[in-house]
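Go through the following before class.
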Amino acid sequence: MTSPARTQVRSGHRALLVTTAALPLAGWTVHAVTLHRRLAASHRDPLTGAWRRDAFTARARRLVARHDDTVVLIADLDHFKRLNDQLGHAAGDAALTVVTARLIDWAGPRGVVGRLGGDEFAIATRISPRHHDLRIEQLGRLLALPVAIEGEQVPVGVSVGAATAHVTGTADLSALLRAADTAMYAGKHTGIPVQARPGDPAAPSVNGRRAGRPGTSTHAIRSAA
């Protein structure tokens, strides 16, 4: 017959073994979580928190492939160079951060927002067709709100183009981005989001970008967008 004292010792020994074994596991769990966070952070723009181009592209492509109600958008700040020149780069950073936060809030948990570079952003999110026009108008109103910079309410224009597979006839992400880009420039500086037309995915492009867009070899020298 096993004495109570011996049983207690054995139980305590097993508990010690389990605890000792769990310590490395807990350490690896913490390490794995930390590593995951670092990897996720490396895929995000450090200033705005938006996804970097490659990470955005991978996520947006999955959305477009899996859901036919996905809307792809391009957003571009108006006269951003002028804002930097007149108010300083800190003001420009503040504007980028606020605009990104608004885009992320609008896109919601089913969407993804990427910073393609400079003051250019891409968005992909799911919108029910019956709510499509209302949601696009809502985005226009949201982006029209001024941005608080050093205690001042500063107007920051944002041009937006939107494209869907239903209207453009393509579910290719590159084509949808090109169509959204073309639509965005059609309404540049108006503050009104423009929706792509059926022919916009076939707009002439240079290295995947709309011909005449800043950064392409055919872009004429003009004032900054």
Strands lie at 70-77, 112-117, 120-126, 147-149, 152-154, 158-164, 194-195, 205-206, 209-210. Residues 1-42 form one domain. The chain has two domains: 1-42, 53-210. The longest strand covers residues 70-77.
